[in-house]
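Human: I would love a firmer grasp of how sequence relates to backbone shape in proteins. Take your time, and here it is.
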Amino acid sequence: MAFFYAALTSLAVLSVTFYLNLAAADHFDVPTLATSGFRSIVFFVAASAAYFFGRRLSLNEELAFQRGIALDDQVRISRRVMERMGDGVLVVDAAGSIVDRNPMALAILGRNPDRVKGDLAQVAPELASAYQLWRSGGAEETEIHRPEGTDLAVSFSYTYSSGNVALVFIRDLRKLREQAVQFKLASLGRLTASIAHEIRNPLSSIRHASDLLAEDVHEPAQQRLLQIVNDNVLRLDRIVRDVLVLGRQHAAEDRNDIRLAAFFANFIPEIEAQENVTAGVIACELPEDMIVNFNQGQFRQVIWNLLGNALRYASRRPGAVRLFARQMEDGVELHLVDDGKGIPKDLQAHVFEPFFTTSAKGTGLGLHIARELCESNGVALFLAQEAGEGGHFVLKGKETMWLLRDQAA
C-alpha cells in the first residue's frame, strides 16, 4: 500500500506538470519537469523507508507478543514448581520483608496464610536473625531449633534480580528424620514379621526350662545365674514386643473423650505400684473438666512410657514428677515434668529416634512408639526442656479436640 500511494502521488504530480507545460504555448519548462521527477523519487524513497520500518515494527511486535506468552508460561511453570516443592520457599527483600511464599512455607511456619506475610522478624524471629546474618556474610546453610520443637534446615540464595530479593529454602528436619526412620522401620517390619515367632518360641522354651531348673536349685550362686537368665529373657521378650508394635499401623479408629482427672486418679496408683514408688511421687494438677479425645488404650500406653521414663530418672521424692495442663490460644497442652538431670542438649534431637537410649535396660523404642501413637491420634508430642530443667514433655492436640469442657460446650 505504501508503494501504491507513492506511485499514485508520483503520477498525479507528473501529470499536473505535463499539463501545465502543454498549456504554456510559448515554451516547455524542463527544470519543472525534472523537479517533479525528483519529487516522485522522494515519494518512493519515503515509501521504501515506511515499508522497511513498518515491517520491522510488525516483526518486533510479533516477537514481543511471543516472548510475552513464553514469559507468562514460565511464570506459571515457576509458580507451579514452587507450589509442588517439598521445601518451603520464601522470597524476601533486603529489608527482611516477605514478598512471596509457597504453600509448604505456610505448613512449616504457620497454616494461616495471614501469618506468613509482612516482616520476617514477626513471623519467625530465629529465621530473620539467620537471614540478616547471611546478608552480612554468614553461612548459606544453617539449622534453626524452634521452641515448639520444630527443627529447620535453612539455606539462602541470591536471585540477582533488580529488586535485590533473595530466596529462603526451609526444610522440616523432623519430617526428614521421620522419613528416614520410616524407610528403616519398613525394612525392620518385614524382617520382624517373619522371625518374631521364631524368636519368641525359643524364648518361651528358655523361660520354661529356667523355671523348672529353679525348683531344684538352692545355692545362692546358681540362683543368681538363673535370675540373670530370666532377666535377659524378659528383656528380649520386651524388645520383640516393642518391635512388633512398630510394625503395626496405629490407626486410631476408636477415639474416646477421656476426662484426665478421673483417668489419672486410677492410673497413677497403678504405675506407682508397678514402679515400686511411694504415693505422692507423681503430682497431678489437672482441672476436673479437662477432656482429651484419644484412643484410650493408646493413650494409656503413651502415658505409661512417658511416666516410666520420668520415674527412671527422677529423684522419687514427693512431687518429683508433675503433671499439669496449660491453656494456650489454640487449645490445651498436657505437660509432664520430672526433677531429674534432664536430657543433654546434644542428645535432645535424637530422643524420639528408634533404638536410641541412654539406659542399659531400655530398648530405645518407648518414646518413638509414644510419638507414633500420638501422631495417629492427631496429637503432637515434643520435648520442651529448658536450661536447668529436668525432662519436660508436652502433648498438644493438633486439632480442636483438646479442650476444657466449658469451652467445648
